[in-house]
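# step 3/5: fold
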Amino acid sequence: ATAMAPWQLLLGGVLAGFGARLGGGCTSGHGICGIASLSAGSLVMVLTFLASAIVTARWLYSNGRRG
């Protein structure tokens, strides 16, 4: 169960799909295969994904969204 509205879940899915397309692959693909093959581009993408997630989570938490 979640307190998120269905439109917010849909928007999150669309944004994740768009980001995967823009980044040339999914987060796990870059994180596991890309970094294992020492790809500098994959390292940059993983750091970008991680930084975006941290900023988004902290922003949501500071605005009262806790679940």
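# step 4/5: annotate
The mean pLDDT is 87.
# step 5/5: archive (pending)
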